Recover the amino acids of this structure.
């Protein structure tokens, strides 16, 4: 059985998702908890991208760089963006350790990022947790940055995870489901939009299933 590192490992209780999602909160997690989700890529991303032809990749909310570095190791041209300067410095070190080149930068995707039009063939959004209005805005920006024929690949904590799964943020506002994603990416050809499960080993040694949602959507030519 695959006991994956829980993507929720970096979450700490706070009064609201507003506090949990600040630059200061993310910096604190990354400074005090090491490589929060490990250095290996997300298991669903690795399965999706294993045989892809090298292309221009954008990793939005790249965190400490585990997915970006893995993709760069597969000869993709990768750009990774994240809100946390601490995460970006750790991502740069991870790339150096793996002897790969990734263009990492710190940016607020909601308030600061101006997407280059049609500049990327593959855009990754891995557990980018945003409230509805911010989520919709960043998803629109991602579509703008996607080249015709390109793919958006997304993995997120499912809205069912609070009541049925394990880990993840305890705030319904920042969780996704199939209907929300279908609406956000309605202008794309949606090839996959479904719940998936990760087997997570809890602190007491039990194994439970985390509920995620995975989307693959292609931009028409």
């Amino acid at each position: 059985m695959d006991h994956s590192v829980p993507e929720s490992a970096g979450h700490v209780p706070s009064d609201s998702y507003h506090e949990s999602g600040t630059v200061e909160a993310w910096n604190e997690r990354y400074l005090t908890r090491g490589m929060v989700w490990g250095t290996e890529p997300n298991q669903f991303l690795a399965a999706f991208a294993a045989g892809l032809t090298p292309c221009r990749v954008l990793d939005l909310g790249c965190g400490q760089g585990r997915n970006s570095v893995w993709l760069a190791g597969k000869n993709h041209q990768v750009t990774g963006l994240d809100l946390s300067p601490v995460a970006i410095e750790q991502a740069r070190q991870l790339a150096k350790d793996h002897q790969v080149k990734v263009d990492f930068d710190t940016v607020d995707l909601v308030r600061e990022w101006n997407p280059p039009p049609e500049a990327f063939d593959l855009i990754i959004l891995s557990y980018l947790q945003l409230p509805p209005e911010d989520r919709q805005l960043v998803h629109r920006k991602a579509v703008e940055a996607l080249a015709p024929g390109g793919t958006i690949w997304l993995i997120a904590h499912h809205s069912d995870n609070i009541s049925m799964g394990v880990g993840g943020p305890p705030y319904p506002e920042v969780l996704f489901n199939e209907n929300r994603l279908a609406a956000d990416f309605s202008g794309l050809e949606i090839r996959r939009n479904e719940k998936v499960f990760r087997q997570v080993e809890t602190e007491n040694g039990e194994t439970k299933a985390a509920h995620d949602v995975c989307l693959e959507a292609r931009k028409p030519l």
